[in-house]
User: Fold these one by one.
Assistant:
Number 1:
Amino acid sequence: MTRWNEEKCRALIEETCAKGQPLTAALRALVDAFGYIDDAALAPLMQGFARSRAEVRSAIAYYDDFSMRPPGRHSIRLCQAEACQAAGARALTAHACAKTGLQPGQTSADGALTLHNVYCLGLCTHGPAALIDGKPVAELDEDKLDAHLAGLEP
Amino acid sequence: MSTRIYIPADTLALALGADELARTITDEARARGEDIKIIRNGSRGLCWAEPLLEVQTDTGRMAYGPVGANDVAGLFDADFLHGGAHEKSLGLVDDIPYLKTQTRQIFKTCGLYAPDDIDAYAAHGGFAGLRAALALDAQRIIDEIEVAGLRGRGGAAFPASIKWRTVLSAKAPRKYVVCNADEGDSGTFADRLIMEGDPFLLIEGMVIAGLGTGADTGIIYVRSEYPLAADILNAAITAAKDANWLGKNIQKSGKSFEIEVFVGGGSYVCGEETALLESLEGKPGIVRAKPPVPALHGLYGKPTLINNVITLCAAPGILAQGGAHHKALGSPDSAGTMPFQLSGDVKYGGIYEAPFGLSLRTLIEDIGGGTRSGKPIKAVQIGGPLGAYLPPALFDTKLAYEAMTAIGAGVGHGGIIVFNEDTDMRAQARYAFAFCAHESCGKCTPCRIGAVRGAELLAKDAPDMALVEDLCAVMADGSACAMGSMTPIPVRTAMTHFADDFAPKDAAQ
């Protein structure tokens, strides 16, 4: 992920439009590049896809993957779905919240970490599962999660 | 010649350290002067044994699992390169009872080779179905699907041939085949394993669907939680084009078909077919009213075939072997096989593909081996977050569409999650409402408001259960799609079969 960059943003939007892909494909490209969708992207998105500000914002608001707030430098996505519940995901999430002082969806004040909920990673035989900085991990418990947290660079 | 070693590279194997295992084996082999070649294959679906290491020996592929990097030195000491005995030995992989007792149609070749190895796919019978389909006209292709009795494997179990024929008979300048790979149901991973392990099977199935419906464009809608599946599919699409099994003038037949991958945005309801179409058009995934059905008025208003991954993956086998072969497996209303997916607190979780008709008990106890924790089973949930919670008293029910319907449950996408005695079923019912509240697209009031109210009610110490039931009735009867209308299924089955868990909190003390 790189820092917000207006020129790159415009290039990504133009590229998506040129391929005939829809608005959400551009949102995906922006999030993959910058981690979020900056306010300054709204105007080129509206222009590129001939949508109103409300239409662009509603598409961003609808999908869990898209956000207009910069994420933390690290991310933990803990699976909340039933198969992981059967393996102790509820207690593990409570532990993660207590340990980090964050609720799911929140980013720490120093911008180091964002805690997310996710609903099924398809690792259901080895719950609780999570994505830590995009890397899949399985059979988590409190000790393993603490070790992962301690291993994240500040 | 180098000894061939297979180490899966699907997401689960990676989460369990398969990359580190492969590196350690490479280093150890170099240090010992052994000549090996590591192949990163797809998963065999024996998830309980992952990472599952296989070695090609003179007698066949010997399996070891689950194997970690710290087992490597011991494996070399035990001469695993020649199938030597080790505490992690599972014997010949084809003789492992979990695998040997399956009837694999969809997962027949998954895990045999690297997912990008198109030659290996073809050498194991790949493209035989497509080759057969290229020689048939569209009506005859659909006739085979109809004879096969194939029903949609995504959850709704709608007869595939009816959808295919509706799209074929629609007159339009453009038609689409959309693969629903938004496998959001918890406890399901068959789509993921196929996409990551045998992606050419899905490509072959989609081309057949294109030939059967007269569509020349395919789109695979993959959920964003499966990034590796999307990458592997994209690589496979390129390889299939290079080999002329995809693209223009396929195998000089004069027929063309293109496929692209579209990654979703993290919304469960986009697995509902009309919400999925909205999402593909770049809009919020808000469900459309039906009719018109997508088969007539789908993507950008054009006739669109929408089938789940496993449904499309059944087509190559049906065309290669004939529909009657498929129909002969399973029961009259539930033809063919289903890759059941066992997970949660179960000893042997993984894919168990079998003809419809085996009992829940057989699957959970004989094959699954009961709970991993050793605690008694309290319930299973079958068919994802909108599926029923069932108690052990109902475990003799057969896994077939008609038998499950009779007890107020459904097969869904074939996922079965095992819960042990520690589970609070009221918390599970409340979660069903809360999940619906989180994922509801907001189009219809029963789902949008009902789910929030349901979660609030079940959070109280002494919920008004008559009101909960009333709410369930309104949601079941009044919601626009399965999200709202089926959320009452886990709630009601939990209430019916586990009434003790719903007693007022103070009275239960």
Note: The first helix of chain B runs from residue 11 to 15.
Number 2:
Amino acid sequence: MNRRDFLKDSAAIGMTLAMAQGASELLADTPKDDAPKASVSCAVIGLGKQGQEILTSLAKAGSKPKYICDTYTAENFLKKSKAIAPDAKFVEDYKVVLSDPAVVAVFVATPSHKHKQIVIDALAAGKHVYCEAPLASNLEDAKAIAKAGLEAKTIFMPGLQMRSNLQNIHVLKFVRGGALGTVASGRAQYHNKTTWKQSWPDDDRMKELNWRLSKATSLGLIGEIGIHQLDTAAWFMKSMPVAVTGYGGNLLYKDGRDVADTVNCTLEFPNNVSYSYDATLTNSFDGSYETFFGSSCAIMLRDQRAWMFKESDSELLGWEVFARKDELQIGNPQAGSGIKTATGIALVADATKQLALGKQPGEVGTDVSHTSLYQSVDVFLDGVRTGVKPEVGAKEGYQATVIAAKANEAVTTGTKITFQKEWFEI
Amino acid sequence: MEQFRLAKYAMGTRWEMVLNGKDAAYLQGVGEAAFEELERLERQLSFYREESDISQINRHAYTKPVVLEPRLFALFKRAIKLHEETEGAFDITMAPLLRCWGFIEGTGEMPSEEALSIARAKVGMEFLLLDADRSTVRFLKPDMEIDLGAIGKGYALDRMTEHLQDMGVTSALIHGGTSSVSAMGSSGADGRKGWEIAIAHPTEEGKFLASCTLLDNTLSVSSPRHKSFQHGGLRYGHVINPSTGEPATGNFLAAIVGESATEGDALSTALLVTGKSFLTTLDRREGVSGSLFLSEEAQKFTLIMGDHSSGVFSDLTV
């Protein structure tokens, strides 16, 4: 920023004090700015909650969308998106977005069952496409999307946001490097106390908003939420599951929905490794996390952080004596109330780099301020800028959707489903 | 008429919501969405959560400009405006001083003069630079810290109230820790208009200082009492006067009734910092309908209302 810009902005926000006290001189003393990344001309299609989250990530990433698009035009709906993207033009028809050559990338955040045509049309129009996960609410649509994504010359990236999270990528190195020892099992959960139901003054709109509560349009709790946690298992295990068993039911919300509010499933991976998952909308205890268990240690991913809980008889890795240790405890054991259940070694994404810079282990920390969604959006935008396809693409998006859809089928039918290899092929 | 009640723990306190309407299931969905907005704002505004936008700003804003999403940028602009309108009494850069006085991690302790001097140098809204073109914030001094805690609850309350209005709710009460309250329409009790609210006495358990009726407006109460310590016969609370860098002693409670909870929170803090002289400023301020100030000197409490407050507060007891 030069002095002229500073004066202009100071006036705009009434910061005359800053100039009076020599702020421009102070500004000259501050570290030099990094060059900001180039803004990507893009559009967000679908302005519900996920669309708004994508808009927020775009704003923080410094990319201003040219269009925001939705078929619902009521002002009390649109105003939230307009507040996040005040410079974007609102359009009702996504084809207007696709016909604008200035738009190079689109984010598809409509309900899952409405992804297909928009994604296929966008790729056909030569746009780079980010499509929320699951790819679709049925495998036929998902395959059509994935096929178009594979064949496209542009980037197609599914919103498997856990795979873009630098913390998870860092932990993956430990897992793939054998730090777990003999991998035995995994466990994940999503616990939240919410009806999952959206209210709206207009009945038709309210019905449309609650597409997740109907089997006809939704893969249920396991497909819409669990997909990310099940995909993390497949990603970390580096293999597709061989079978899934499941069960679930609607235990609390007797409001006409036909999707379960509480689900459990167990994925079986090669070598009899199991991964159990439970999700409920009836109770919020202990929130959401993923854990992997091996003969040497357990690794937990939680709230964009990760810890390793070592077995006493496991070999020293060397670095862990310097690493930060965090207690897993209930209450305050030091004060005599509560118990300490375990001591975790923090797996910090930039620890090696920071230590190399001469920082003490206690000072090392990860910048966890960016959500998985932000990092996923950022990876996509970088791909658009550079033309290099991200590591997560159509194949991963389709395979994750297959796992989620079959897990949902196992839950709704209460059966064991054996995966056929060809199910994962596009 | 049906009623639905929800509660949630957020921003370090318990929030409650009472919604009246024709359909309890509908009200539950509306209330849950309002609480989702509260959770989003806590994730964004928390001073204590290292993943929040505020923590990111505090970590990086001296070494590089930090991009703010437009709603947060607008809130920063509003905080700067409120700083100017309160002649500096409301200040979002006070965290280093609060830390120095021991109020960030505990209930306070007397700092050394040297520590106080170092902390004072890290404070000042004039060292906060917003760039409207790039939507960024930058610190002009190292080790500055922003804390929007003084208006965070009020801002969340305004956003939640707006959501209820958009969803057609006409009768509701929301509060965050009883210190920030928003009321819409009538409570439906005894055919009365509005919602009857009592303001608790800051030092005497079970005693009320005053009551007021809220009807489509908000109440913000600031009191340093719950986070304070005694030293040399004086009680030092967690509300610090930016001009001195020291807690405003003797000022016990400030309450504002007005249209905006965001402004109410900032103005009640400013009233607590400035003292009774600020009441005349509040008398002239658009959007504020009532103000109340409790001070203590030589163990004697004095309760004063702003001139514009007649009919707003009742049952005043010291």
Note: Residues 1-21 of chain A have pLDDT under 50 and may be disordered.
